[in-house]
Amino acid sequence: MQSKTLFNENGHQWIVIGRDPHKDAHVIDTNEYVIISRGQAMLLDPGGIQIFPQVLAELAKYVRVQDIRVIFASHQDPDISSSLAMWLDLNPDIKTYCSWLWTGFISHFSTGTAIELNAIPDEGMRIKIGDLGVEVEAVPAHYCHSSGNFSLYDPLAGILFSGDIGSALVPSHEAGLIVTDFDQHIQYMRGFHLRWMPSTTALRSWTQRIRALKPRMICPQHGSVFQGDMVTRLLDWLDSLEVGQWKGSTPPRESAKAA
Amino acid sequence: MLDALGLFKRNINQLFGICVDIMNTGRSLQLLSSSMQTLANNGVIQAAKIGGGKGRPILALVESLNQTPREIKPEVEAIEQLCAELARLTAQSSNIVWRYYQLIASVLVAMPQGRQASCLMDRDLPSRLRFTTTADISRLMSHPSFQFGEPLERDNRSSIAAICQANLTELHARLSEALRCLNDTRRALHGLKMIGLTARYMAFCIASEAAALDEGGMNFKTLAAEIGHVVDELDARTHAMKSSIDEGQSLVELLLKGDSYAKQDTLQ
User: Fold this and answer.
1) B95 and chain A: CB distance < 8 Å anywhere?
2) Is the pTM here over 0.90, yes or no?
3) How far apart are the CA of A40 and the nearest CA of chain B, in angstroms?
4) Is B97 helix (H, G, I), strand (E, B) or coil?
């Protein structure tokens, strides 16, 4: 597992953990992010159970396990939070946040102790990182791709965690963690967005909300991080997409008639 | 190392499967108890129909037999309770070992790699430990390489290893309780067997008395044969439960010692 500090100013840090060369080939590669604010940490989409040992071992280089105070789940998928029970086993005081739509579903990841989740309302909310840390903002991203979906914006760092938006299926663990050639990178994002994003309207409404925030960096859950000019290029590219267009294959009977 | 622990984990899941089998068989005993009750009621009615003094010995026997299901019922209920407790304990054990496996894997991934670790005399120690006992974790924690790295990493390694030890202690407590439950279930089954033997003896006596009756005796011969079948079924199911209990017991005893069992089918 690799890790990289994306931001570090006045005791406020963003770290990305990802690109596990040892993970099983059938497990999709994910990025896990941690915000450390005045010694207290927030974990964003902590990942699936398969990669929990690697993520924990890497995270242990940056923050005391007892200082993880908050977990944010952008949506309900297993690659986002099937490890939740493990994190809560490590530290039962961690506060966990996800869309109100999924609290009852994610609780099924429990392996003993009940998982109690704090519900984020549809319009989003501010979340404080522990008792001492700063506040970050859950930004609505519904239907991008999940029907109850949030991005997370940190105004102090100017970094947006975008969940699956901007994600890419990069070919190997050696791919760079930061996007340097946007045009080259599109090939890894295109299929992902066309199939996993169900609503062009929802996607455009999200880009509008994000443009207003003017983030300096966009960090997706899969693939590579966008910074500087790449942020605008990503938002423009997303605006150009028509997603959720699968119309189904022609049923065999129809094909026969046509013939 | 993780292969040995993986097998240990799989054995605990197998134990859960065995205990579910025991529980299902235990529940099926309730049906046998009902069948026995129906047969005994039927016997009382048939015996009451026999005129004169001829039916008295049989009536006395079937009335006595009528008590058997009442004796079986609390025994079967007690077995059901024990079986449910057993399934609960082994399900908890499966959850604990699953969490433990992930955490100990984290500790090992977080162990220092490369030159710093390889300069140790006993650098292969972690790969030789099986991590199925708290003693294994203590050995790892006292190994010099455990103290390498930045203070933050060392602290985290220690605190995760401490949780691992707590998990294993909890696992052993659950397995010990499961072993006690298995023994209690075996004892309860012995009580059931004694009741079955009594019922079989009653059936034999009823058949003997029925031989002295004329046509009316046929009903009682059939009744005695039916009771015999129910007791046979009871014996077969208690035997199956005993085999599962033996299997479960051997497995728990191995697991409590930190050992595991590689063969996928029944235990030797």
Assistant:
1) yes
2) no
3) 14
4) helix
